[in-house]
Amino acid sequence: MPDLFNFDDYDKCIFYSTDPEPTYCRVTIELVPKNLSQSNAIWRIIEKVSSNKKNYRHDLLRHGICASKKCGKYEGTIPECLNRIYKTKYGHLGLDVENLLSAFSLSDNIRSIINQNTKNRTNNYLPALQGIRFFTSVLVIAIHAIMSSALVAVSNPQTVEKSITSFTSVALISHLILFQTFFVISFFLTTINFYSHLRRAHYVTLEDVLRKIVKRYIRFTSAQVILIALQSRWFVHLSRGLFWEQVMGSEARLCSEMWWTNLLYINNFFFDHGLCLLHTWSLSADFQLTVIGLLILWWTQKNSKRLFLVSGGLLLVQVTWTFFYLGWNNFEFGTLYTPESLYGFTFLFRKEWQATWTTTVSNLAGLAWGLLFGYIYSHRQNNTFITKKSDHIWWYAIVLISTFGTIFFSGYYKTSDYYSSSRWFAASYGSIEKVVCVFGISLFIFGTLQGLGGFVRNVLEWAPMHTLGTLSFGAYLVHFVFLNIDNALKRNPSYFSPYLIKASSNKRNYRYDLLRHGICASWKCEHFNETISECLSQIYKSKYGRLGLGTRINQLHCETTESGYVITTKDCIIWTVLGTYVVFVVLVSVWLAIYGKKSVKNEDRKFSSVGNFLSAFSLVDNVNSIINKNVRKQGTPNNYLPTIAGIRFFASFSVILVHGLAAALQIATANAQAVEKLTTSFIAVSIGNFSIFVQTFFVLSFFLMTINFYSDLKRVQHVTFRYVLRKIIKRYIRFTSGQIILIALHSTWFIRLSRGPFWEQVMGPDHRQCNEKWWINLLYISNFFFDDGACSLHTWYLSVDFQLTLLGLLILWLTQKNPRRLFLASKTLLFLQIVWTFLYLRWNDFEFSAAFTPELLYDFKFTFSKEWQATWISTMSNLAGLAWGLIFGYLYSHLQNNAFSTKRVNVWWYAIVIICTFGTIFFSGFYKTSDYYSNSRWFAASYGSIEKVVCVFGISFFIFGTLQGLGGFIRNVLEWAPMHTLGKLSFGAYLIHFVFFSIDNALKRYPTYVSPYLMVLYSFIDEEYKLIPNLFGFDDFDKCIYYSSDLKPIYCKVTIELLPKDCS
């Protein structure tokens, strides 16, 4: 069949074209048989596939054409030219082009497609509501993200057709019905507030009702006005691209034309004309139901029986209206989100979706159940309805059956053959589905507020949920903007995963004499009899010979339909062990939850020694210890160091953010020149320098180690060498337990998750290194073995930390009777780092630290750079963290009761901290981007030797100051209760974050597009770059391997070195 989606390269057509007026067009072509009376075999296949509404319409082709290239010598108009091209292209298949459905500019084409924290009074008594609101928001946003991945063209439509209509996918998307939770919470709180006000004032006037409505309007509108203004004017100018007009252009036009429907909260009645901020239909429905609900409460305030009667009437109206609307129009009970309906979100224009989802009548159940349960709770909140254990079980059963029962039955029904058979059944089930599901949601909310739910309730009442729940409204309001921008920025059709020369002389650029290409060898070499290597060599010689260049293949890696990784006995053993461990953890957690006896006062569980050992593996106990700030062991330093967890969290966040930016450039990029300008700009280099905050972990580690040591020394008078060994073993176990699992997964399972053009490049090295060099990680000496690559490269930090821990404990043990020796040893460590760094940099004529140029970031080649290894991951280059940690740890343990906080001290403290930390960071950014960077190696050696020492002093002084009462607002943020939990999670987050970055890169099907709007750091592209051969070029991996008609398809990644043709 003809390609459903096919797009020419947008950037080459618009930005790199030599044509004075480059034109790029998106076009939709409708195919028909040439001879209507005698349809050919190809047309019959197209007709058969397209007749299944679970597939795309394969008679509608959506293509992107560089019209200035294809129609450059054609004398007619562009529509005539493209008509002729497509008639010629598909004529030999017995197909004809009926018409071009879309206009031939992006604007007209898309137009035709689209035109079809503070707690309030109530929350003080309803602690679980914010948690429910947060988890509902996360679920809805996640499902919207999945759906939006099919909003634009995809490179593997067959995969979408199979996966998006499977039971799992449909059942997952059916969870959108839990959006009704927002309506229930809204009217539940409205009712409780109303009766609270009624008890105080004895009568609620119509003026009070109007005041409530006006407040609701202002709350909704203030945010919407800003979003509509940005959407209609600014967002559309952020960038340009293949899908930009389709996604962002339509939103801008609709927000310019239909903004008034949003501000009047009637946009859920105007879907036929398109919708500005389509997800805000919920705000309109909510506002309309709020007006109705407040009027009902006002009318029934003197007679509560009326409230129950009216609520029952609302439920009856929804059931009756939905039944007759679906039955009368012969509609399905809910929209099946097919690939065709998700493309361009055309399901928005389907009447059955509008009728059963966005209308006011179809959401009356949220209002009715919210009023009923709100009334019951406000009048009986001190009464416990459920006391027996059997009542708890019934509550769980009713909630699960009412909510998830309806969701999964809906998923089963929509994917069965019965879906289109009985429309009366569809009308019957569709009329009660929402009513039953919303009842389950309401009963769940009511039950958690009555003390039911156990562990689930504890999670919902966790302190940070108040903040996260408060942010939910804003997150919901803006999430579609980010999803739209992400789709609009794509330079190629999305890959839908069922899981997820002159320039080269400047070292700040890529090497343009090394081309990294992905080649479908079975296409390019089908007429060659030579080997693949000879074939590709011949192709590149012919291609670049006319430019006076010779070629040489440096690297060649080819893949076929068979994976190169065979499951071995070792893999099976590791999978079995990990699986057994997971089962063990689950069983222990269940056992402790069921048989764990508690004391009368509900305090700590009482177990035997075996039980205490097993409790360390309990999921429930571990989660509770993380989220409950009161589960701190008495006597530990953290009782007296409230800012430590917050500092640890923000340091982790900074380091992970920088790693994420670097990881984005690990693979090929679609706009290499933009990356070159980006990575050499002052802002980008300064942001990259924030990775120096990894030193915070070293300082915290040895700061706490020193305080613990002197705390124990005061208790026992003398610390033995056995104490030192015990501390070292505990440290080893803590680090190793997580590393073993990570290494096991890297060496076996991760490599088999998927395949693609970048999969081997990103995941392959870690797989091989973790198979061969796992032992250096477990011996914590990996920072000495980077020359040949490393397993989980970011774990160099653990090796350095462990080595410095050994050294630090020995120093503390040797100096315990004479603190002066401790200061002398610490000063010696600082002196050693400065002298060693200076001599190493100067002797080798190195820069003071590696500049992260595009070429070094590609494949993370900077990890093989001697200056990076010397100044970043060696033990000697990190002695400052140990030295300052020992010094400030000693000072704090002996002076913690002394107050230094005065206004004058505060000012000096701020000045020293800012100059020592951010001063070194930004000066380094300025120096690396200046012309002076490569001129004076004496200066580089001098500055490089003291940079870390000064910066780490600033970090240590900051930590010490916050614990002495300095910092004001900053200290308050660091001491915020949720920071305790976030700080505890930091180590785990650091340990696994690189896995997610790697998998994200490896799953990409095309080179990464670095958007200028994100950094706003370059504004032009040099003319000479247009003459340089493509640095990165990749054929479609999936078409080559999975959809090829070749019996043995082969896809090769090749690195070609360009040479002058005449070397003399």
What does this structure look like?
By secondary structure, the chain is mostly helical. It is 60% helix and 5% strand. The chain is built from 44 helices and eight strands. The strands form two sheets. Strands 1-3-2-4 form a four-stranded mixed sheet. α10 runs parallel beside α21.
Can you tell me the residue ranges where pLDDT is under 50 for at least 5 consecutive residues? 100-124, 499-505, 597-605, 630-639, 1012-1028
Mean pLDDT: 79
Distance between the termini: 51 Å
**Protein structure class:** mainly alpha
| Large-scale geometry | globular
Give me the side-by-side strand order of the main sheet: 1-3-2-4
* Counted beta strands: 8
Tell me what portion of residues adopts beta-strand conformation: 5-15%
Largest beta-sheet details? 4 strands, mixed
Radius of gyration: 33 Å
Instruction: Give the helix tally.
Output: 44
Task: Give the helix proportion (percent range).
Answer: 55-70%
InterPro entries: Acyl_transf_3_dom, O2_lipid_transport_reg
GO molecular function, one term: acyltransferase activity, transferring groups other than amino-acyl groups
Pfam families: Acyl_transf_3
Keywords: Membrane, Transmembrane, Transmembrane helix
List the helices and strands and how they pair.
Elements: E1 5-7, H1 10-14, E2 24-33, H2 41-51, E3 60-66, H3 67-70, H4 78-91, E4 95-100, H5 106-114, H6 128-148, H7 157-163, H8 167-174, H9 180-201, H10 206-234, H11 244-257, H12 259-263, H13 281-299, H14 304-328, H15 339-342, H16 351-358, H17 364-380, H18 389-414, H19 423-449, H20 455-460, H21 464-488, E5 514-520, H22 521-524, H23 532-545, E6 549-559, H24 569-595, H25 609-615, H26 619-627, H27 644-663, H28 672-678, H29 682-688, H30 695-716, H31 721-747, H32 759-772, H33 774-778, H34 796-814, H35 819-843, H36 854-857, H37 866-873, H38 879-895, H39 903-928, H40 937-963, H41 969-974, H42 978-1002, H43 1012-1015, E7 1032-1034, H44 1037-1041, E8 1051-1060
Parallel strand pairs: 1-3, 5-7
Antiparallel strand pairs: 2-3, 2-4, 5-8, 6-8
Helix pairs in contact: 5-11, 6-21, 8-18, 9-13, 9-17, 9-19, 10-11, 10-13, 10-21, 11-21, 13-17, 14-17, 14-19, 17-19, 18-19, 27-42, 29-39, 30-34, 30-38, 30-40, 31-32, 31-34, 32-42, 35-38, 35-40, 38-40, 39-40
